[in-house]
């Protein structure tokens, strides 16, 4: 049986269809935040089968577990074909999940496979997809080029060597693949591995980091290095928001105390994080980078499975950490010195959408439209209804026309279809407003919104 992914999928009125097909469909992609492997792009990796390119995805793993699939078929020792069959068995049980839409879109757009995936069609899908992979039709570079990707912003630790990025720059590869600065471990002074990570930073900067001043100097050197390779943004995962005032002397003493192996108080941890993030923000502002704050993921909730599989294996979920006062004071501490960088605020908890959309409005400026952004629907929220809610909240409280649009936030090259998914939802929402009499049928105006949100705003915002 053929899929339901028609030309007019999710487009429920004439205005929506015209906006999508005439404007949105063929726009280039700026995927400004993802977790793609730059080495896979560098070597143009050839994947041996569909499981290898498709199923290393904690979104799918969570649904397979919910469907009663044993771990041996997910991250365990069963064959790649057995793991694929387990996913094919799960797909029909996922109606209402974005995974049902994404899975069929990925098979159709990447492999030209237009059948519903289930246990009966699985052998055909496996054979046909693997044939295309074996032929070399589907590789990271071919995917990026097919989808008209102009920019890829990967996610990289400050102590990473960035070898692949350097080689891609030297090669002159046509897609702009840039690192993004992810200094979570630099802020994680309370973590057991903090001192070991500082040692890594020492080695990569060829410096002896024995004081907080030298720690900041090393971070600034890495900011300079990232910038030389085209970095356009930083990214921070803030499980819990923090704000505690401190001066350089106090933070220097806190750093020394931790490096000497002493325990820190909760207040000292917050003082270190607040001061260090503020100093980093000033570096970002100087480089004209954006600062992305991802707020509200509670990590590694299942201790037994964390011990078995480690992090990023599908056991993270939504927290409730947002304290509007702390966020306001953190941003204000950067703004008061005139060094608040371009900032994108994301929350994993959709209950915070109104708070973030309103918070962004406190720190706008004449530098550019939407300097502080209420970011795209993220992770558990990037479903059809979650994307609609984010767009409508931004339209209600902020300025939809200045929005920088969608990102994949994914480790999979096949996830680029999420830009199409977003574009269809956006066009349908605008078209629905017209049909309901909430907006004029001014196709020039509406097309301008679509072009800006899907492409031009991000191009300007990230200085591409």
Protein described:
- This protein has 464 residues and is an alpha/beta fold.
- The chain folds into three domains: 123 residues, no CATH class; 93 residues, Orthogonal Bundle (uronate isomerase, domain 2, chain A); 196 residues, Alpha-Beta Barrel (TIM Barrel).
- The chain is built from 20 helices and nine strands.
- The protein is globular, with a radius of gyration of 23 Å.
- The model has no long low-confidence stretch (mean pLDDT 96).
Please tag this protein with its features.
3 domains; 3-stranded parallel β-sheet; alpha/beta; 9 strands; 464 residues; uronate isomerase, domain 2, chain A; 4-stranded parallel β-sheet; 50% helix; TIM Barrel
The overall strand count is 9
How many domains make up the 3D coordinates?
3
Q: Given this structure, which CATH class of the largest domain is correct? A: Alpha Beta
Helix-and-strand structural type: alpha/beta
Widest sheet: strand ordering: 4-5-8-9
The helix-strand sequence is HEHHHHHHHEHEHHHEHHEEHEHEHEHHH
Which runs of at least 5 residues are low in confidence (pLDDT < 50)? none
Distance between the termini: 43 Å
Architecture of the largest domain, according to CATH? Answer: Alpha-Beta Barrel
Q: Beta fraction of the residues?
A: 5-15%
Structure annotation, total helices: 20
- Tell the overall outline: globular
Rg on CA atoms, Å: 23 Å
Average the pLDDT over all residues and give the rounded result. Answer: 96
Helix content: 40-55%
Largest sheet: 4 strands, parallel
CATH superfamily of the largest domain: Metal-dependent hydrolases
Q: Which fold name corresponds to the CATH topology of the largest domain? A: TIM Barrel
């Amino acid at each position: 049986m053929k899929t339901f992914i028609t030309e007019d999928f999710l487009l429920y009125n004439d205005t929506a269809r015209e906006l999508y097909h005439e404007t949105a469909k063929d726009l280039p992609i700026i995927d400004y935040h993802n977790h793609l492997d730059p080495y896979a792009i560098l070597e143009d990796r050839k994947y041996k089968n569909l499981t290898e390119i498709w199923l290393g995805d904690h979104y799918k793993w969570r649904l397979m577990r919910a469907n009663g699939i044993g771990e041996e078929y997910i991250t365990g020792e069963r064959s790649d074909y057995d793991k694929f069959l387990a996913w094919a068995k799960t797909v029909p049980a996922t109606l209402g999940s974005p995974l049902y839409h994404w899975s069929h879109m990925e098979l159709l757009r990447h492999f030209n496979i237009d059948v519903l995936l289930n246990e009966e069609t699985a052998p055909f899908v496996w054979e046909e997809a693997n044939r295309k992979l074996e032929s070399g039709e589907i590789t990271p570079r071919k995917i990026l080029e097919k989808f008209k990707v102009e920019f890829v912003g990967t996610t990289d630790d400050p102590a990473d060597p960035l070898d692949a990025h350097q080689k891609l720059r030297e090669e002159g590869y046509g897609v702009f693949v840039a690192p993004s600065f992810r200094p979570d471990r630099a802020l994680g002074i309370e973590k057991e591995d903090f001192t070991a990570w500082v040692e890594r930073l020492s080695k990569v900067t060829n410096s002896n980091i024995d004081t907080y001043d030298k720690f900041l100097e090393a971070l600034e050197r890495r900011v300079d290095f990232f910038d030389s390779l085209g970095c356009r943004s930083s990214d921070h995962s803030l499980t819990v928001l923090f704000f505690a005032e401190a001066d350089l002397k106090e933070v220097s003493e806190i750093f020394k105390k931790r490096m000497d192996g002493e325990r820190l108080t909760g207040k000292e941890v917050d003082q270190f994080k607040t001061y260090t993030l503020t100093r980093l923000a000033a570096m970002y502002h100087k480089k004209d980078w954006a600062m992305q704050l991802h707020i509200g993921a509670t990590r590694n909730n299942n201790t037994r499975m964390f011990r078995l599989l480690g992090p990023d294996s599908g056991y993270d979920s939504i927290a409730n950490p947002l304290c509007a006062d702390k966020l306001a004071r953190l941003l204000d501490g950067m703004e008061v010195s005139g060094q608040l960088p371009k900032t994108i605020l994301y929350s994993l908890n959709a209950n915070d959408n109104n708070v973030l959309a309103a918070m962004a409005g406190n720190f706008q400026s004449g530098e550019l439209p939407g300097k502080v952004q209420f970011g795209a629907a993220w992770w558990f929220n990037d479903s059809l209804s979650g994307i609609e809610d984010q767009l409508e909240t931004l339209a209600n409280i902020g300025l939809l026309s200045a929005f920088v649009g969608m990102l994949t936030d994914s480790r999979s090259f096949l996830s680029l279809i999420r830009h199409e998914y977003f574009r269809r939802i956006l066009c349908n929402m605008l078209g629905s407003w017209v049909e309901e009499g909430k907006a004029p049928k001014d196709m020039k105006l509406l097309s301008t919104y679509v072009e800006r949100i899907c492409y031009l705003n991000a191009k300007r915002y990230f200085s591409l």
